[in-house]
Write a structure and sequence with these properties.
This protein has 251 residues and is an alpha+beta fold. The chain contains 7 helices and 7 strands, in the order ααβββαβαβαββαα. The chain has 2 domains: 111 residues, no CATH class; 85 residues, no CATH class. 37% of the residues lie in helices and 9% in strands. The strands form 2 sheets. It has a 5-stranded mixed β-sheet. Strand 6 and strand 7 form a beta hairpin. The chain binds zinc ion (ZN).
Length: 251
């Protein structure tokens, strides 16, 4: 009897089984879409790489800029800085101050280092962070991923440097701090930001929420700047080809 009771306790204490990773759509209820079942963010979780949601992501990027002017500055065209990699070529942007610091760092140290600085990643907008986060939760494609709205990449203040060992000392002299062994390619800009980091991260989520509301007037969500369950679900349901109405969505 005692053994039976112990067994019952053990059974009752089992962790809930996480949902299996599903590569076809719809992934999980509630997901009311029936038409097509492709073309939504949730349907693109089976393939690694955020370029598949570029059209949606660039709308979020543009909508941040239209609400908060001068949020972004391009890091293309800087001699000695390689931004041709797939993770950065579509979004070669940072805030202006880290961009200027990076350009100065490369100009002053390229000859001595003896190789171009190769950037893997610069800014990331909330749709991209959402996709990475969903992968990370399923042990797919990526390792540990910050919750959308909390990554310094979303603020335009961080870079991932492929050849970080060659460039680490130079970067640190220009206010780029390495995060360390947990993510050795990652550097955070510790100088003065053009837009406060927490504001910039909030803007990234707000931009999506406002765009969603503009295009889904019968299914609006609060524009909080917080990545909550309701917002995550709308990311899933967003079209990878971008929203129809691309007007500036104020937040
Ligand atoms: Zn990083």
């Amino acid at each position: 009897m005692l053994i039976l009771a112990l067994l019952l306790v053990l059974v009752n204490c089992q962790k809930p089984v996480p949902p299996a990773y599903v590569t076809s759509c719809p992934r999980r209820p509630p997901f009311p879409f029936v038409q097509g079942q492709v073309g939504y963010v949730v349907c693109n979780e089976g393939t690694c790489g955020t370029s598949q949601i570029y059209s949606l992501s660039i709308q979020i990027y543009n909508n941040i800029q239209c609400n908060a002017a001068n949020s972004w500055a391009s890091i293309t065209g800087i001699a000695g800085l390689d931004v041709t990699g797939s993770g950065v070529s579509q979004f070669p942007y940072l805030q202006k101050n880290p961009r200027d610091a990076l350009a100065a760092c490369v100009a002053a140290n390229r000859a001595q280092v003896g190789q171009d600085m190769v950037i893997n990643s610069a800014i990331r907008v909330s749709s991209q962070q959402h996709l990475l986060y969903q992968w990370g939760n399923r042990n797919k494609c990526v390792g540990l991923v910050a919750v959308p709205g909390t990554s310094n990449h979303e603020a335009g203040l961080s870079i991932d440097v492929n050849n970080y060992q060659a460039w680490s000392a130079s970067l640190q002299a220009y206010n780029f701090a390495p995060i360390g062994s947990s993510d050795p390619v990652h550097f955070d800009f510790t100088g003065t930001a053009n837009i406060n980091p927490s504001t910039a991260k909030t803007n990234d989520i707000k931009s999506f929420q406002a765009l969603w509301n503009l295009n889904n007037p019968s299914d609006t969500i609060p524009i909080t700047g917080v990545y909550d369950a309701a917002t995550g679900l709308r990311f899933d349901r967003s079209p990878v080809a971008g929203f129809t109405n691309t007007n500036c969505a104020p937040f």
